[in-house]
Structures are given as C-alpha cells and as structure tokens.
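// run 5 | inverse folding | seed 20
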C-alpha cells in the first residue's frame, strides 16, 4: 500500500530526474518498515519545502452587501454573534496553501463523509483584538504564541502547518475590515477563532489530503459586566481531562466535548466549574478552559509563592498563563514572591488552608484574563481559598488583570501588544 503512494508522490513534486530515480530505487528496495517510514518523512519534508505557504499578498476580498446591525454593547453574549466576514484558506496535499480569501460570513458546505465529522480532524485557537482608546489603533496580544500553538496542534493531528506571521497579517486585515464591531471601552474586544479542519471526503483513517483554515470573529464584552465574581469549583476525582503522552497540551476540539458531562455534574451541585485533578496524588491541573494559579505561604519560611502546574504535556500552554508568570517574575519577585511551575497536590492546598497559609486562587485564560476562586469542594470538604466574605477577587488576581489589560489596550507600551 505504501509503495505506490511513495512512487506517485515522487513523480508529482518538483524534483530533479536524478532525485526521482534515487527515491524510486530506494522505494523499490525491499526494506524494513522504518526505512520506508523515514523515506515518507523525507518526502513529506521535501513537499513542505516546495509547496506554497500562506501568502498574504494573494488575499482576495469580497465584501458583504448586507452589513449586520451592531448588537448593543450590553447585550453581547460570548460567541453568540459574529462579524460580517470570515477569512478562509484552503490547503491541498498537492498544491499547498491556496490564495487566502475574505468573504461574507457564510455556511460551509461539506460532504457528510468529510473526515472532520468522523475522526475529529479539528484544532482551534482563541485570541482577541483590542482597540486602543488613545489612538484607535487595533492590537493583537502576543499573536505569535497563538500561531505557534496552533501549528503544534495541527501537526499533532496530521493537518498542515503554516507560516504564523502570514496568518497574523491576514487576521490583521480582517480586524481592520471589522473595525466597527470593536468598541474601545475596557473589557470589550473582538474574540478571534482561528480553526482548522480536515476536509478530505473519505472514511479511510489517514492523514487528510485537504484542509480548510478559517477565522471567524465575535465581538465580546467584559467577562464580568458588573465587576469580578469569584467562582466555586468542584474537584473532579472520577474523570481525567488529559494524561501523560496524550494531547492535553493541544487545542484539539476532541479534548473539549468529553469535559462537558463532568462540568454539568459539578453545575448540578451548584459549582461554576470543575477542577481537573490527575493521578493518585491528585495533582491540580486546570479549571474548565483556564490554567490555575495558587498563592500559598511557605510552611517553614513564610515566603509567599505563586504556583501553577508545570508544562508536562497534560496542561494547555496558556498565553495568559505565560503572561502571568512573566509579569510575576518581573514585578512580584522583587517584592519577595517566589514564582514556581511545579506540582501541587489537592492535599497541599487543603493543608495550607487549614494552617491559614492559603492566600488566593485564580484561573487564567484569554476570555476572563483572571477568574478568582472562592471555594473548592474536595472529598466532601469545602476549602476556603482566602477571599473575604465581601471580596470578589484577591490582590494578585486584581494586579494581574490590571497589568495585562493595560498592555492589551495600549495604556502601557509593551512588545506583547502588536498593532495590526
Ligand atoms: C485555551 C485554554 C486555556 C487558556 O489559554 P489562553 O491562551 O490563556 O487563552 C487553558 N486551558 C485550556 C484547556 C484551554 O483550552
């Protein structure tokens, strides 16, 4: 099965006659599977080199003739309404990335046998565009991080990779076109959803021969319209979100559907979100679609420590997580804080609480920036995360939100804020 495909592939790419003869000779030589696999890898790598990448200069724009009415700011619901246009870029194994197109927002038409519907060839990103009130410039927050992560996700499920700077440039073009959907008030932004799907029409389980990368955009308001609201979590000990060697560190659609039932179960018992634990030791990992931060006082030294789970492949590498860590190292460490990426057990949190050493807990992600946590339910025990009855957020969560928002809206000049 492998051989004819190798030969076909050898004939269709732009190699010299001599190279093709070499590849054919290699392929016809009865060898072990691993050498054939290496050969296929080499062909795939060669193909990547020869086939066109995303080319922003080829962008074709078709503007809508029926612009949507803007939803009043206070009625915006996350991910419910979308802008006038979408960005689409098709890819085929033989032609590479085709010319990018911005078109009116519209339905996709796909054959029921398309591989995304059967084997979950899908990955996505979540990022935002902000309008700076000072000069009305449009800005993206660390888009290079999203592009790198998306390439990591797509490569893991045999979808094509792409030039992240080129896609960022195109997203910028789309943001400019949709500018009227982005208010400049703090808390408002344009949520961007780059998505890639395998589009080959086949029930065969294999690498998709074609793909579609598209970007849709949804205007969003503040996550907490009436100010912070601390959330209560239920620690989930009967199901796991991700495991070593798995794909928990990739933004694959397939990672999210299985999280809904535990989330519903927690909601039924009155909790906003469930907290994912891992292993016998019950290490804390993530909460919903956010990374988790715990502020704790050291038992012996009394030193304050900001702790989050290490990137061991089971944790989504949040852009917000990385930003919180960097800001903490820059602005909290000089004030005596210790910043750690390390394992923390549920038991350690419970112990810190009982000894009065648990200072604060918060989630971190693009949607809310930070989500303060009031209580965690664990094995019938209710852990109080340190907020006063009258408080909705702790000091560190508030500081982080202020610092990150300041950069996102251009109050503070910072290399993380990229003008489009
Ligand atoms: C997207 C996501 C996050 C947060 O990532 P950000 O880049 O900070 O938005 C955290 N955990 C999971 C499971 C996610 O899907």
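// decoded
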């Amino acid at each position: 099965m492998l051989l004819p495909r190798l030969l076909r592939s050898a004939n269709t790419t732009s190699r010299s006659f001599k190279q093709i003869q070499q590849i054919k000779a290699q392929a016809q030589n009865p060898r072990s599977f691993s050498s054939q696999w290496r050969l296929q890898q080499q062909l795939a790598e060669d193909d990547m080199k020869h086939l066109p990448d995303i080319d922003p200069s080829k962008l074709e724009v078709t503007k809508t003739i029926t612009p949507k009415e803007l939803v009043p700011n206070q009625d915006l619901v996350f991910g419910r309404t979308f802008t006038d246009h979408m960005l689409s870029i098709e890819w085929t194994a033989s032609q590479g990335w085709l010319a990018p197109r911005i078109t009116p927002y519209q339905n996709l038409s796909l054959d029921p046998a398309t591989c995304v519907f059967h084997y979950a060839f899908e990955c996505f990103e979540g990022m935002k565009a902000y309008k700076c009130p000072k000069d009305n410039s449009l800005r993206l927050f660390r888009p290079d991080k999203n592009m790198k992560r998306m390439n990591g996700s797509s490569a893991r499920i045999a979808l094509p990779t792409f030039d992240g700077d080129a896609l960022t440039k195109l997203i910028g073009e789309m943001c400019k076109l949709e500018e009227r959907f982005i208010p400049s008030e703090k808390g408002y932004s344009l949520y961007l959803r780059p998505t890639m799907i395998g589009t080959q029409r086949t029930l065969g389980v294999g690498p998709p021969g074609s793909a579609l990368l598209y970007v849709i955009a949804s205007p969003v308001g503040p996550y907490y319209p009436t100010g912070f609201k601390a959330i209560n979590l239920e620690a989930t000990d009967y199901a796991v979100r991700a495991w070593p060697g798995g794909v928990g560190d990739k933004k694959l659609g397939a990672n999210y559907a299985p999280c809904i039932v535990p989330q519903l179960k927690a909601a039924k018992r009155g909790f906003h979100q469930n907290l994912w634990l891992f292993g016998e030791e019950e290490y804390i990992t993530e909460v919903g679609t956010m990374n988790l931060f715990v502020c704790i006082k050291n038992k012996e030294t009394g030193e304050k420590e900001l702790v989050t789970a290490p990137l061991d492949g089971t944790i989504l590498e949040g852009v917000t997580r990385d930003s919180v860590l960097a800001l903490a190292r820059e602005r909290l460490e000089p004030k005596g804080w210790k910043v750690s990426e390390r394992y923390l057990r549920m038991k350690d949190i419970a112990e810190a609480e009982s000894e009065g050493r648990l200072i604060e807990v918060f989630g971190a992600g693009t949607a809310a920036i930070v989500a303060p946590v009031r209580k965690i339910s664990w094995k019938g025990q209710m852990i109080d995360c340190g907020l006063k009855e009258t408080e909705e957020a702790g000091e560190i969560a508030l500081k982080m939100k202020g610092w990150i928002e300041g950069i996102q809206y251009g109050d503070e000049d910072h290399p993380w804020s990229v003008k489009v």
